[in-house]
Amino acid sequence: AVVSTQSTGGVRETLEQSLREKERNEHVYVSEIAQLGQENRRLARNRSRESANMEYLKNVMVRYLILANGSERRQVLSAILTVLQLTADEMQQVKHKLSPGWLG
Q1: pLDDT per residue over 35-82, tens digit each?
Q2: What is the pTM of this model?
Q3: Can you give the C-alpha Rg of the chain in angstroms?
Q4: Of 8, 30, 34, 100, whose CA is between 20 and 30 Å from 24?
Q5: CA 72 to chain centre
């Protein structure tokens, strides 16, 4: 009977230890799920912004293509270049190809 009580105590201790470990893991998983949810919402906001930027760029490009006035075209071109977020090197290449005064 003594052996039986000791092995029952050992089983109980093992089960309690396993339970504590699972509770710790659950805490980690809940935290990871929360972080993934935040990341998912951030990505959705970025996707929405990118879509809005693309729509804006499309509208600005259409306006640029139909404008005849050089002054207005310069203003629209400036907006286009801003939306495109060109690197300094790309901006230099564009400035080099344009007539003097087009980008200021």
Answers
A1: 999 999 999 988 888 888 888 889 988 998 898 888 888 888 888 888
A2: 0.49
A3: 32
A4: 8
A5: 34
What does the alpha-carbon distance between residue 86 and residue 94 come to, in Å, rounded to a whole number? Answer: 10
Residue-wise over 79-100: b if at least 16 C-beta within 10 A, else e? bbeeeeeeeeeeeeebeeeeee
- The angle, 0 to 180 degrees and rounded to 10, between the axes of the packed helices 70-84 and 2-66 is 170
Residue 3 clears pLDDT 90, i.e. is over it: no
- Please, how many CA atoms are within 13 Å of residue 44, restricted to the half-sphere of its CB? 6
**Contact 68/80 with Cβ under 8 angstroms?**
no
Structure tokens given for 13 = 């201790």
Report the alpha-carbon angle 46-51-56, nearest 5. Answer: 125
